[in-house]
Amino acid sequence: MGKKKTNIREIIDLKDMIKQSTELFGNCTAFKLKPNKEVNEYVEITYKQFDNEINCLGTALLDLGLKDETINVIGNNRYEWAVSYLAVVNGVGVVSPLDKSLKNDEIKSLVLRSKSKAFIFDGAYIETVKEIIAEGNTNVKYFICMDDIEEEGIIYYKDLVKKGQQILVKGNTDYADIEIDNEATKIILFTSGTTSQSKAVMLSHKNICSNIMDCRKILDVSEKDTILSFLPLHHTFECTAGFLLVIYSGATIAYCDGVKYLAKNINEYAISIMISVPILYENMYKKLMSTIKSSGKYETMQKAVSLFNALDAIGINTFSLRKKAFKDIYAKLSPNLRLFVAGAAAMDKEVVKGFNNLGVMFFQGYGLTETSPVLACESAKACRPGSVGKPLENCEVRIEDKNENGIGEIVVKAPYVMKGYYENPEATAEVLKDGWFYTGDLGYLDDDGYLYISGRKKTVIVLKNGKNIFPEELEALINELPYITESMVYGKPDKKDDYDICAKIVYDLNAFKEAFKEKDYDEKKIKKLIMKDIKKINKTLPAYKYVRDIIITTEPLIKTTTQKIKRHEELKLILNENK
Question: How far is it, in rounded angstroms, from Cα 208 to Cα 213?
């Protein structure tokens, strides 16, 4: 077992971070890897082994002549992705991870835009690679496959690692001797959106490392923890919080085998911490409550929760007692489960409260790709339902152009704010002004310094009477209905040059039938019953916020890989369907 870390330690760059983590946690498990998702067996990779493989791959990439070049990495969450990212960024050149969900043409476009000289890829992308090779219009010189696939013109990851090891054995220290300029652009991340519209965020080691250290000050993560990596690694939320912060802290990473294996993976890896997006936790909670109700134990659970809440109110901490009382629930999840962290969108307050009641701490955070990404997060000492916590220690926040309710644009200054947008000075100038980053998000700070997010400037619906409607606020209310999976609120132009507030609603048919206790439905009847519940929600709101019409579907909304709704694409779809 490595030395126990007692203080937040200073790291100047990611190479320094790996060096320190290897010294502190060398024999600890860095990764639990499963060769076959259908089998519960896994192998363990120590911090020393991880460090060695990074050095081997980095040495081999230098030997290929890739010093200071940009290298793309694409694939599912896996160990080879983690090694590739750090091997590139810690001495070779600039790493540019790509969204694994993109279509072939979009991937090819981003390869061109990033001017990469090497393309490290998961075997699932072999057809894309074959197209890139056949077209021959990119700068890519080397295609490196994480899997053993017999294909001409492909270098195998394993072969490169072996080659690097052979070079190191001969005493070559070129890779180890490279000094990192921690303020230079070493990471290029493409934001979600269409390929032509997406911006490329430029980040440095200093950006990422300062964010890791500030996050660790409020999140208790140690070598005792095992984290389930679920969100795509190309996204900076997962990359910083679910990968790099974990390695900094000496904890263990296990990769999720897919959504349908989620509960199984949490259980078999004895997961203690999970970092994900609200929709996953909300669906998990709904299924959990449904299971408890069908077992006939819901009333008993509620009585126990009331007792624990009363004890907490008089200063008795019931966290450990809750875990013992609800051991049957934890048997289906993980006995070690203690912390959920959510980001990327607003979280249903009732779900947060529900998990807290069961003895799982639930923290919400807020950030953007442009800020490495975390700007604010709840903690054990600063937790307030509805907020995203307080800004991180080295983050200044101000609210600009406030309305009568104190809501305005969130503007920040922090060492984790990006260097700018790659080859886009105009877009950079729009958001970076006098050292402040204009997030495009709307929100407010309360008197105690807690930050609340209201929505995006681009999505707010402004009525003729000057009233602002934040779609996210109404969506949160709609999504509380037990049979609703997700929703999107939008403004439909009316004949008076104003807007009618409408919603596209995704419902679960089985949950719907359970809620209304009838067997036969047609779509017209389903819509009528859902609208009846919407009208009940309307009664709790001022008239200008009333949802006037709905579209219903069982098909999921179009989303990014971090489960944010692609509102523009959904609106185009709605308009086309209504023509």
Answer: 9
- Give the phi and the psi of residue 454 in degrees, each rounded to 5: -100, -30
> For residues 411 and 426, what is the distance between their CA atoms, to the nearest angstrom?
18
3-state secondary structure of 409: strand
Q: Which residue has the tokens 């919080």?
A: 241
Beta strands 436-445 and 451-456, pairing class: antiparallel
Nearest residue to 481 via CA among 297, 350, 341 = 350
pLDDT in tens, 145-161: 999 988 888 999 999 99
Q: What is the tens place of the pLDDT at every residue in 419-448?
A: 999 999 999 999 999 999 999 999 999 999
Residue closest to 14 by CA, chosen among 72, 66, 91, 129: 91
Task: Name the residue among 521, 13, 423, 22 with its Cα closest to residue 200.
Answer: 423
Cβ distance 182 to 206 under 8 Å? yes
Q: Which pLDDT score is estimated for 4?
A: 43
Angle between the N-to-C axes of helices 509-516 and 278-294, in degrees from 0 to 180, rounded to the nearest 10: 40
Alpha helices by DSSP H, listed for 138-217, are 157-169, 174-177, 205-216
* Of residues 442, 458, 453, 231, the one with CA closest to residue 347: 453
- Predicted model pTM: 0.85
Evaluate the CA torsion angle 9, 12, 17, 19 in order and state its sign: negative
Report DSSP state, residue 402: -
For 160-213, write each residue's pLDDT tens digit: 999 999 999 999 999 999 999 999 999 999 986 544 468 999 999 999 999 999
- Which ranges of 183-249 would DSSP assign to H, the alpha helix? 205-216, 236-239, 245-249
- Residue 227 and residue 31: Cα distance in Å, rounded? 10
Q: Yes or no: say if 254 and 228 are a contact pair by the CB < 8 Å rule.
A: yes
Residue 458, classified by CB atoms within 10 Å of its CB into exposed (0-12), middle (13-18) or buried (19+), is exposed
**Number of other residues whose CB lies within 10 A of the CB of residue 246:** 25
